[in-house]
Specification:
six-stranded parallel beta sheet, binds adenosine-5'-diphosphate, alpha/beta, binds uridine-5'-diphosphate-xylopyranose, 18 helices, globular, 14% strand
Length: 459
């Protein structure tokens, strides 16, 4: 099928950057991104590019280049669906918060709504591409909804999981390790492959059956998360034995069979994918009665929760077993650097533990607004919104957050944290001045020579 118009349902972290890059490399294809959230669409259309709803290095430049030419943002979902030959589904699939599979299974209600929406308004044949991460065999459900419309329209379903990481989304999209396309119809697969071939070498475009494609996405994230949990498990052992986790990571990473990536010990992984996808994998394994398989992967999550708890426990213990009424400065709220996304960020859980101990938290993050921090905390439902607002404040500048603090907790590895005038910070803090470096980004020798009591993960 010749593709002239693409519609993408969902203008989020996945849909926005992916479609911008597709539009940039395919000037002859019109790409329309639609969303039910009118505020989000308005932000994507804002003339001031600083107001785009998603921060990703390089994204604003591509939006500037393509918006209004062949990249459009709209709330008119039905029109965009009807006018397109190819429709990407990039809506969110959060973990279910109710009913069967609560806390484990992916909530597919948004996906189902999209499928019904497409079935209702389509008047010509369509290729429907699942972009959101979905549990294995979701395509079956989408297929059954679309094929039972009785209007004689032909729908081909493809799975095309995204492997972009936030903070590096644009470079991941421009130079992907591979593009994966799963499906049954060769014609549909070729149509999508052509779009990627505009900038990705054909040898890097893999085609598989639908189910392999869906399962590959969950497996890739499970393997990556497992590496982080593995190195984090070793970080605790290092703290007890005098080994240095950075040295261990370097030593094992030089073994080409292991490789250097994803070996940074941290306060624990966050983000919208890892936890959700592993829980999903565990849920699927359990539903096939594969108890050992399910327990095996679940342990990755248990280790991750332990790492977050261990970090706050160590901080409290070091501050003479009480943080009540003490000012704790948190640097970073995002789940990693170069993104304004905070989903499952370790900072939320560490803040929650510290608030339970009545700490006064002052947070500085270069890209996350205060309202987001508050809504993340309120979502946990641990205490009243007033108590959260009382216990956690955001600072406009790092120095304001750090002034008068008893301890600093580094939660995100933002580059700018390395450039601060740490002598000045030391002067302004209560003594002894403690630093808990949850990301191992500061120079231990330098911090100690200034006078800080410095603690890093795995050392
Ligand atoms: C991930 C996958 O990498 C991506 O392919 C997938 O499609 C979506 O999920 P993302 O969540 O954006 O991407 O971030 P990623 O860079 O994978 O990091 C996930 C978490 O692990 C972050 O909290 C990060 O700080 C943490 N991490 C990563 C570590 O703690 N140590 C590491 O060595 C690497
Ligand atoms: P992701 O990280 O997977 O991209 P986001 O939450 O950032 O997740 O983006 C998903 C987007 O999908 C949200 O902006 C949400 O409003 C949108 N969305 C969810 N359901 C629908 C729907 N039925 N129709 C249109 N947009 C939807």
């Amino acid at each position: 099928m010749l593709i002239k118009n693409i519609c993408c349902i969902g203008a989020g972290y996945v849909g926005g950057p992916t479609m911008a890059v597709i539009a940039k490399n395919n000037p002859n294809i019109n790409v329309t991104i639609v969303d039910i959230n009118a505020e989000r669409i308005a932000a994507w259309n804002d003339t001031n590019l600083d107001n785009l709803p998603i921060y990703e290095p390089g994204l604003a430049d591509i939006v500037k280049e393509t918006r209004g030419k062949n990249l459009f943002f709209s709330t008119n979902i039905d029109k965009a669906i009807d006018e397109s030959e190819m429709i990407f589904i990039s809506v969110n699939t959060p973990t279910k918060t109710y009913g069967k599979g609560k806390g484990m299974a992916a909530d597919l209600k948004y996906i189902e709504l999209c499928a019904r929406n497409i079935a209702d308004v389509a008047t010509t044949d369509k290729i429907v591409v699942e972009k959101s991460t979905l549990p294995v065999r979701t395509a079956e459900a989408i297929k059954s909804i679309l094929h039972n419309t009785g209007n004689g329209i032909n729908f081909s379903i493809l799975s095309n999981p995204e492997f972009l990481a936030e903070g590096t989304a644009i470079s991941d999209l421009l130079q992907p390790d591979r593009v994966l396309i799963g499906g049954e119809s060769t014609d549909a697969i070729n149509s999508l492959s052509k779009i990627y071939e505009a900038w990705v070498p054909k040898s890097q475009i893999l085609t598989t059956n639908l189910w392999s494609s869906e399962l590959s996405k969950l497996t890739a994230n499970a393997f990556l998360a497992q590496r982080v949990s593995s190195i984090n498990a070793i970080s605790e052992l290092c703290e007890h034995t005098g080994a240095n986790v950075n040295e261990v990571a370097k030593a094992i990473g030089m073994d080409s069979r292991i490789g250097p990536k994803f070996l940074n010990a941290s306060i624990g992984f966050g983000g919208s994918c890892f936890q959700k996808d592993i829980l999903n994998l565990v849920y699927i394994a359990r539903s096939y009665n594969l108890t050992e398989v399910a327990d095996y992967w679940e342990q990755v999550i248990i280790m991750n929760d332990h790492q977050k708890r261990r970090f706050s426990d160590r901080l409290i213990k070091t501050l003479y077993n009480t943080v009540s009424g003490k000012k704790i400065a948190m640097l970073g709220w995002a789940f990693k650097k170069d993104t304004n996304d905070t989903r499952e960020s370790a900072a939320i859980y560490v803040a929650d533990h510290l608030l339970n101990e009545q700490a006064n938290i002052a947070v500085y993050d270069p890209k996350v607004p205060y309202v987001k921090m508050q809504s993340d905390l309120n979502y946990l439902n641990t205490r009243t919104e007033e108590d959260n607002a009382q216990g956690l404040k955001a600072s406009k500048t790092p120095y304001e957050a750090l002034e008068g603090a008893h301890a600093i907790a580094i939660m995100t590895e933002w580059d700018e944290f390395k450039t601060y005038d740490w002598k000045k910070v030391y002067e302004s803090m209560k003594k002894p001045a403690f630093v808990f470096d949850g990301r191992n980004i500061l120079d231990e020798k330098e911090m100690k020579s200034i006078g800080f009591d410095y603690f890093a993960i795995g050392r």
